[in-house]
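anyone seen this seq b4? input:
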Amino acid sequence: MMSSSSRRLAFNGFDISAGDEWEDITASLEEPDSPFTVARCERGVGAIQFSPAIYRSGPMPSVSPKDLAAMLSEFGELRGLRDPFDSLPFSGSVFGIGSSCRSGDDFVRAWYLSDGANVMLVTYVCDWCNRFDESRECEEIVRSVRFTDGSSKPPFAT
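predicted toks r here
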């Protein structure tokens, strides 16, 4: 579990729980349209990026765990990420699936999350040799995602 020094970081449409050493670094990135990004300020080895698709109006989506698995597979295929491993689904008010890949000298872990209406892609990248340094914390941060716009419906029944 996250240490007692964790806090909620709020973004547009969602928030996360992260330890005090994790900071929102989005504004420091060179690209003006960069995804929301957090990194550990001291001794950090990678960064987590959050790309939400927040439901606003229209027919209510009905996103399922199977849909998320298909999106994750397509994400890897389109980026040439071969031989995914460590695939792990999870359930709760926000449910999802993640898997890891090696891409050259990089470790890449990607997750797709949903609450049935909203969907989010989350990615974490670090050097391959550092892949274990932040893995537990990253998984906890991802599982702490809460959509906050109030338009979600109950999660898909598993």
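The chain is about 15% helix and 40% strand. The longest helix spans residues 65-78. kinda curious what u guys think
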